[in-house]
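*** Query protein ***
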Amino acid sequence: MQACPFDLSDPRLVPARPEIADARLRGHVEADRYVVGEERSVVVPAAPLRRTPRFDAGLETEAVMGDTVTAYGAEEGFVFVQFAHDGYVGYLPEAALGLAVAPTHRVTALRSFLYPGPDLKQPASGWLTLGARIRVTETVGDYLRLASGGYVFAGHCAPLAAVEPDYAATAERLVGTPYLWGGRTSLGLDCSGLLQLCLAQAGIAAPRDADQQERGLGEALPLDFDGLRRGDVVFWRGHVGLMLDATRLIHANGHHMAVAVEPLREAVARIQEKSYGPVTSIRRLISEAQIRV
């Protein structure tokens, strides 16, 4: 038997359900049928990924325009998928998916509108969030024409290879964004969604959830609050925040119900008393030479 290509210890990353599983999992998990997945692209501004194929199931995370997924099979208006960027599995609405398309640009504004033509006076036909990826076919004046249809303001986008190295600056732009469990867009974010989104703008791939990020990102620092700097990441059991400097933390949190900045020590005291307990680790992702303030 070949080695399993998936981490079976984390069900969030295993493309298998009792009724269907990735063909590479044959012999490793039990399923009614095994299929070879097909690559698809997300073609709507945002779509909920749910644990079960039900519209009232809880939000696990979100897909955004241009995300690539492996699709395994449709059921009751949903498709069982695995995200390419972080390996997360679940059910997306079937209408959210289209043929696989290679993006050329990404959205750098917090949000931008789609228009039926290259004219801001036309009624908007949709919207795109920070980090959405699009395939551009031509430039028409100040607008980019999308392969999927519609136009977006060119000043709100950048070539796919362009990055924002100071991911803390991206987080600062998102201050005030409402807290949303499972949120991954500039309309609503949870703590790990904020970190994942900001790191993606810096060209750094990150897992989706805080415990996965704690295991997979950076190097551990001493578990104290001396010598911290911009870009360091602070973890609790089930929560994460990002340092803006030696003393200030930015995080999406349920206390403020928003992305907020506060003194680290105040946050630590409140979180230890009311929610996630003590800090479990502090990790450094980049060298001092990479920091751009």
In short: The radius of gyration is 20 Å. The chain has three domains: 11-99, 105-159, 167-290. The longest helix spans residues 191-201.
